[in-house]
Amino acid sequence: MSTHSTYDMLRHLADSWGLVAMGVVFLVLVAWPFRGALRERNEAAARMIFEDENDG
């Protein structure tokens, strides 16, 4: 029988690779709105609150 339990193995995996995976997901989600392809749409959304109903 193994000296390490399944819990210990999963805990080690979560402490090492799980943390790396969560960090990568976090960085991707933070960087996603700043992609160059969406710049025009993001700027339009930022100006939207200043437009009047009669502006078009």
Q: Segments where pLDDT lies below 50 for 5+ residues?
A: none
N-to-C span: 73 Å
| Strand segment tally | 0
- The mean pLDDT is 85
- Level of helix content? 55-70%
The H-and-E topology, N to C, reads as HH
Strand content: under 5%
What does the model show?
The protein has 56 residues and is mainly α. 62% of the residues lie in helices and 0% in strands. The chain contains two helices and no strands. The model has no long low-confidence stretch (mean pLDDT 85).
Features of this protein?
single chain; mainly alpha; 56 residues
List the helices and strands and how they pair.
Elements: H1 6-31, H2 39-47
Short overview:
With 56 residues, this protein is mostly helical. The chain has helices at 6-31, 39-47.
